[in-house]
Every structure is written in C-alpha cells, then in structure tokens.
C-alpha cells in the first residue's frame, strides 16, 4: 500500500481556544491513538489534502517532532458549512495487529450485459476489510467480464489471501439491470 509522509508539531495546549488559533494559522489539530499514550499535535491543512481528497487509501508516515511512526486516518471532522478539515484522528499501526480499513472497489473488464444495452449499477464503492498492514490492498478488483443482464457480483464471491472482508456476504457489489431502452426493445419484439 502507498505511503505519504506528513510532519507535525506537538501541541503544548489542548483546548478549544488553542484549536481555533491553530485553524487560523492553516493548521489542523490532530491526535495519534494506539500507542502507550495519546499524542496531540498539529499538521498543515495543505499536507492533508492529498490523503483526504482521494479515493485511494494511504498509510501515513508521521514525523512528530522527530519521532517517526506509521499510521492511518481513523476519523476526520469537517466544518459543517465550509467543509474545511477541523480535526483528524490517526491510528498508530502495529505490524503484528490486524487493522480494519475501507478499500475502494475497482471494476475490471467489459460486461456483455452492458454491450447489449443493460445498465451497470455499482452498489458498493468501498469494502471494509481486516488484515495485517503488510497484507492490505490498494484496490479490490472485481471482474465484470461474466455479467449478463440480471446478474450480479456479491461480496461472498470475492476473496483474497490473508484478508477478511467484513461486509455482509449477501451484499451486492455490482449488477447489470435492464435499461429502459432494452425494455422498450423487448416489448417491440413481442408485438
């Protein structure tokens, strides 16, 4: 999985007034969980953009006042009106402990059902997976080569070594439904 380096500086004061002051300086208050103690720090809002505003999942190489660690973003809070990032929670990665992450689904191939006029409907864009950090995938590739009209691919049909998919097995990832044009063509053929 890809990594992005982000550096931060420790916060001396923790509270609303301090957090507000950081946001005026284009910094985002953050907390690193998962270690022996919680680490309160701040990062540049510009450094977070390539990690937050992308469908790709990244590991983050944090450098907080010279202490290096690897983490993932566990939670992000946005301002309700401006959509600016106002707080970020990071989770420290332990190479021996499995971690749960939402991984994007990437459709591969061309569906024969779509070629004849069916409509491709992707119901799940991400899947929740649990694995050791070294086993995590960048994408979950789902082949639609065999999808005819009326057929679907369910979560139960997808598996990867050393990775557990946590979504319900009956959930549909992608399906090909009958389009309006295809229904009209079938009705005209019956007449």
Describe the secondary structure blueprint for this structure.
Elements: E1 3-10, H1 16-24, E2 27-33, E3 39-44, H2 45-52, E4 59-64, E5 67-78, E6 85-92, E7 99-108, H3 112-115, E8 119-122, E9 126-131, E10 140-143, E11 152-154, E12 164-165, E13 172-177, H4 180-190
Parallel strand pairs: 1-4, 2-6, 7-10
Antiparallel strand pairs: 1-3, 2-3, 4-5, 5-6, 7-9, 8-13, 9-12, 11-13
Could you give a short description of this structure?
The chain has 191 residues and is α+β, with helices and mostly antiparallel strands. It has helices at 16-24, 45-52, 112-115, 180-190, and strands at residues 3-10, 27-33, 39-44, 59-64, 67-78, 85-92, 99-108, 119-122, 126-131, 140-143, 152-154, 164-165, 172-177. A 6-stranded mixed beta barrel has the order 1-3-2-6-5-4. A 4-stranded mixed sheet has the order 10-7-9-12, with no helix packed on it. It has a 3-stranded antiparallel sheet with strand order 8-13-11, with no helix packed on it.
